Amino acid sequence: MRAFDSRLPRYARAAAGSLLTTVLLGLVTTGLVIAQAGLLAHVLATAAHGTGLSALRGTILALLLVLAARAAVAYGGEVAALRAAARIKSQLRRGLIARALRLGPSWLSGQRPGEITTLAVTGLDALDAYFARYLPSLVLACLVPLAVLARVTAADWLSGLVIAVTLPLIPLFAILIGSYSAARTRRQWLLLSRLGGHFLDVVEGLPTLKAFGRARTQAEVIRNVTGEYRTATMAALRITFLSALVLELSAALATALVAVEVGLRLLAGHIGYETALLVLLLTPEAYLPLRNVGAQFHASAEGTAAAQRALDILELPEPAAPAQGKSEPDLRTQPVTLTDVVLEYPGRAAALRGVSLTISPGERILLTGPSGAGKSSLLALLLRFCEPTAGRIGVGATDLAAIPHASWRRQIAWVPQRPYLFAGTVAENIALGAPDATPAAIRRAARLAGAEEFIDALPGGFSAFLPERGLILSAGQRQRVALARAFLRDAPLVLLDEPTAHLDPAGARQIMAVIETLMAGRTVILVTHGVSHAEVPVSRVLRLDHGTLVPAGQAASLAAGG
Asked: Distance between alpha carbon 524 and the CA centroid of its chain, in Å?
């Protein structure tokens, strides 16, 4: 784990001013440290010679002003560092979410949502210690020891030589201990991510776990992961305490060595009293920033590990952006053509193999096949959630890869197997794809989807607040809200991914009646496991089997026989 990740500044330009302020205040602190030691040494030496306090009034006042200025500068440095941390965390979170959206569902499907959530929330929050504590300490550790060494050497070259010889020992010990603790800290962060991800998975799947009597088993798994995280945390803390002990001991021995040689020479009369006091006051200040930076390194280690993981995601290659200036497709008049399309997911067998298909405007296609045959993968290609590994998808005479994603998706309405309803009002959920829709248009879409009646029965009607996933609604009601989205979007291409898979027969018949209305005047691809919807008027039936399209005649005979 690196003490400073050089990639951070590229993603934290908004905080450049605050970070520069922190550095400048570090320079001011360096000057104040030296001034404070000089003034204090002068006051003590003068007072020791029997001079009255009246003669030192100006020096004492200057010393008090320096102390006040040092406190104010320290406060200002911490405020600037906290502001930098807040801006950088915000920028990293926005970048992380934007990159995840651009990488698309095909990338997200290979991740654990709980780990990404833990990274974006708890992980990046730990950057406060990095920016508010570690970086200011690192700045001071670079400036103060060199300035103190120069000032001590100017006053007494022998003491400066002792400090110059002993000073590198502290960063040397810190580096040795830090390299040992890096793996421990990384393991601690990975265990926290794993714990967060697994806990989220268990919460989401709790009904299934309870139904199959596996809830206690998963609780035991969480207990074991929690125990591992506790063990890793305690191991990291032991290293932190060991580091503090080693650094404090090294600094104390080095300071004592300077104090002994100064004391002996003071007794022999080889060094002045004020000079001796200046050396003794400045010597601890030379080692203090190095001790602090070692301690703050461990305190900020979790945030650094999280930031490095976030930066790794931010630097993942994105799908190539289409060239600008291409005309927007019109799926009401242009066919969609797939030519020898292959789709492979990393680490898995090919989902689609050599699929060739032409989808004509206004055509209604029933796409069937067993689970895992590649039906949802074909829809994912049409939705541009992933790009074909080989082959070509064209719209009219234009390659689909040359059309901007936003222009393409404006032509599509999609109803997935399990439509996701967001926390918000019913109207906001229906208007997800058309945020500028009027209340009248939203109500009309709900009426066409057969959802108006049950929405009006909700407390607040269309203004009723739905919790996350819309769990206060039944599966059929959630499906109708999703269909209302499709009606409101009024897109020429409608993709329906097994819209009745989780409904009872009566609910499925009602939804299919709504879908028949939705099909009017649109190109429709209706995906289903079997052929139970053969009563719906379709132009043709296609069947996928192990990623390959079954010949049209065979698929049609299967539909007829269903």
From this structure: 37
Q: How do strand 364-368 and strand 540-545 relate by DSSP bridges?
A: parallel
3-state secondary structure of 270: coil
Instruction: State pLDDT tens for residues 45-100.
Output: 887 776 666 777 888 899 899 999 989 998 888 888 888 888 888 888 888 888 87
**Domain spans, the chain:** 8-314, 336-561
The label of the residue with tokens 């028949």 reads 516
SS3 content of the chain, % helix, strand, coil (to 5): 65, 10, 25
Q: What is the dihedral of CA 397, 401, 404, 409, to 10 degrees?
A: 90
C-alpha dist (Å) from residue 116 to 127, 230, 307, 456: 16, 21, 12, 38
Separation of alpha carbons 449 and 439, rounded Å = 15
Q: Of 122, 137, 141, 178, which Cα lies nearest the Cα of 1? A: 178
Which residues share a beta bridge with 355?
Answer: 341
Residue 404 near residue 322, CB atoms below 8 Å? yes
Distances (CA, A) of 209 to 222, 289, 300, 395: 14, 53, 38, 45
Specify the length of the chain in residues.
562
- Measuring CA to CA, which residue among 79, 186, 198, 53 is closest to residue 132? 79
Whether CATH 1.20.1560.10 fits 8-314: yes
Residues of the chain with pLDDT under 50: 1, 325, 531-534, 553-562
Taking Cα atoms as reference points, which of 499, 519, 537, 542 lies closest to residue 374? 542
**What CATH homologous superfamily does 336-561 map to?**
P-loop containing nucleotide triphosphate hydrolases (3.40.50.300)
pLDDT in tens, 111-164: 666 667 777 777 777 777 777 777 777 777 888 888 888 888 888 888 888 888
Closest among 533, 535, 531, 420 to 475, alpha carbons compared: 420
Q: Which of 179, 145, 134 is nearest to 254 (CA)?
A: 145
Q: Copy the structure tokens of residue 380.
A: 């994912």
Residues in contact with 108: Cβ distance below 8 Å, sequence separation at least 6, in sequence order: 100, 116
Count of beta carbons in the 10 Å neighbourhood of residue 474: 13
Local structure of residue 192 (DSSP, 8 states): H
**Rg of the chain in Å (alpha carbons):** 34
Look up tokens 């990488």; give the residue.
103
Sequence-distant (6+) residues with CB within 8 A of 141 are 171, 289, 290, 292, 293
Cβ contact 553:524 at 8 Å: no
User: Which burial class, exposed, middle or buried, applies to 468 when counting CB atoms under 10 A from its CB (0-12, 13-18, 19+)?
Assistant: exposed
Closest residue by Cα to residue 490 from 296, 331, 280, 287: 331
Residue 342: beta bridge partners? 390
Quick one: which of 170, 147, 138 has its CA closest to 282? Answer: 147
Token pair in block for residue 498: 């097994």
| Placement of tokens 């809200």 in the chain | 481
SS3 string, 84-137, reads: HHHHHHHHHHHHHHHHHHHHCHHHHCCCCHHHHHHHHHHHHHCHHHHHHHHHHH
